[in-house]
Amino acid sequence: MKYHIEKxxxxxxxxxxxxxxxxxxxxxxxxxxxxxxxxxIDEVDYDFSALAGKSKSVMHRFGFLxxxxxxxxxxxxxxxxxxxxxxxxVVNLGCGLDDTGRSCDNGRCKIYNLDFPAVIDVRxxxxxxxxxxxxxxxxxxxxxxxxxIDASNGVVFFAAGVFYYFLTEQVKALVQAxxxxxxxGRLVFDAANRRAVKLMLKTWIKTANIQDVGAYFAxxxxxxxxxxxxxxxxxxxxxYMLGYHxxxxxxxxxxxxxxxxxxxxxxxMQIVRLEF
Length: 276
Description:
By secondary structure, the protein is an alpha/beta fold. It has helices spanning 10-27, 35-43, 49-54, 58-84, 100-103, 117-126, 168-181, 194-200, 202-207, 222-226, 254-266, and strands at residues 3-4, 44-45, 89-93, 110-115, 133-137, 155-159, 186-191, 234-239, 270-275.
């Protein structure tokens, strides 16, 4: 029996990025392919017709390419950490139905997927935890979840499309707490400047009646802006469209490569790495 997804619920917010990753896999298979998402789409009862219609527009297709590059970049960072810390904990912050942790599994690491309880309920139905894996219901801002992470052999945290919804002070408090508790850990996440955040979140801002968009997390110069948050923390960043890949793939048009340069340079779309 298929898992029914209701419209206008938390569950629906999980299905939309899921469908996006499916289209990424179809449009850019040499750059990104998610075997799990193809299976999950067939296991949910949901009307995808509206999403399918939007997917034909040029800008939506570029958006799918952005999703593909972001997931590839974060996976690269996780694998890079595991090369020197093979028994580390891999922690997906705001996991939804993403399985990047599993895709990076080296057979030795421990995988933790964290999200709100309502989200983890759905994940447990569709993506039950496997070997060396745990799905943890929590509020990321309540750091009591720190105690559930075995970081004795190192830990790499990653967050995809999560911190845009956090106030800057919330991200700062979380980073400072992580820095204090997880020495030798790494946190990687995507970020962008204020203009890009407004564009990405315009529907949510209107629906949630957000008055002070400027209070939400945005970054231009990651090293300059974030280094003062914690003594000794190392900060670096790369453009997330072209910082890890040249996008010289037949599936990517010259126009999309141009938009990628605009995104990285004018919108400061970046993958930020914090070394604790």
